[in-house]
């Protein structure tokens, strides 16, 4: 980010150059110093520059009585600047960390309000970045966490941008005083039971008394660490490219990786690559919980290990690791015969089945493997279904939900498995679509 000593409006405009053609600029307006300065800067710039449409969003958490007056204050500030304001009330769920619960509620609201090609701006500054770095360092964060707050990231259908990360709190205060701005002082910002407030009021003053440039140096360190994380991400993409191989069960639509290329890497590169892949799928485990990956990776070849994570499970089967979540973790139940086989049959928690080609004569039913099933094959006679699935290396998690077509007690077909999926002489095959188009994966 630009760090020149030019005046604040010019620096802000330079930092926002990549987003000059957005559909809408929205400001997360708490009414505090940071967002008040940001709002004033942008409203002033909009009088002289051709900028996207500008509006503000105030999130009302309802956590303290004094906050009830804040929406009106924000409205008066926005009215004076000619900026439309939207007030959004949220419910903060209780939990171990009120700070985190309020943040989660706030960003959920931001996500719901940010549309395609919108930019949502927040007022975090350089001092906030330094506090974030120190806070995460004390919690034992890795390189990604110590990279601090990114200048931009996705939110909702648009982007969240922090254009003041190279500006100090002192600069914002100076600007506010020069323009006679009025802002809200949140009483909770003085409550030192909150970790960030403790760092701000008790720790940072001591550090800056000894090292006046401490906050600037820490913010600069965050930039270096974010660059290092970028290199780790590039390495992860190189390693994942070796593991994202073509396989015959891609039609399942389940994210998976080939195990052997991963296992050939050093432990650190395995964690880096797998963490990069999992980040889009689940909240990542802490350092201690990564032992679950070692257990899954090193389990015996005849085992079916599972690593349970926050938002799903990683399974190992058929030489691959598979990410399962949502409906893939619910046992499917079939409740009725297939009364009208000419039509698609929807399966509870298991997509749908249909015939390609002719429709075999009724009565028919769909069921799932229970164990001990035998299938008659024209060229091979009676064959144990378990052996047939082994021959085709069907992943373990699929076996209990592969739709089996029965007429009476006879298995006529196993959906989607070539050679077992129908009667070619009768001109039909059984097709299974594991998830409906609108279901997707978590």
UniProtKB/TrEMBL annotation:
Compartment(s) of residence: Cytoplasm
Coiled-coil intervals, chain numbering: none
TM stretches of this protein: none
The protein's enzyme class: ligase
InterPro entries to which the protein is assigned, alphabetical: Lysidine-tRNA-synth_C, Rossmann-like_a/b/a_fold, TilS/TtcA_N, tRNA_Ile_lys_synt, tRNA_Ile_lys_synt_N, tRNA_Ile_lys_synt_subst-bd
UniProt-listed Enzyme Commission number(s): 6.3.4.19
Catalysed reactions listed for this entry: cytidine(34) in tRNA(Ile2) + L-lysine + ATP = lysidine(34) in tRNA(Ile2) + AMP + diphosphate + H(+)
Binding site for ATP: 30-35
Keyword set, alphabetical order: ATP-binding, Cytoplasm, Ligase, Nucleotide-binding, tRNA processing
Keyword Cytoplasm among record annotations: yes
Any one GO MF annotation of this record: tRNA(Ile)-lysidine synthase activity
Ranges for domain Lysidine-tRNA(Ile) synthetase C-terminal: 364-432
Family under the similarity heading: Belongs to the tRNA(Ile)-lysidine synthase family.
HAMAP family: tRNA_Ile_lys_synt
Domain notes: The N-terminal region contains the highly conserved SGGXDS motif, predicted to be a P-loop motif involved in ATP binding.
NCBIfam families documented for this protein: lysidine_TilS_C, lysidine_TilS_N
Name of the protein in question: tRNA(Ile)-lysidine synthase
Lineage: Bacteria, Pseudomonadati, Pseudomonadota, Gammaproteobacteria, Pseudomonadales
Gene: tilS
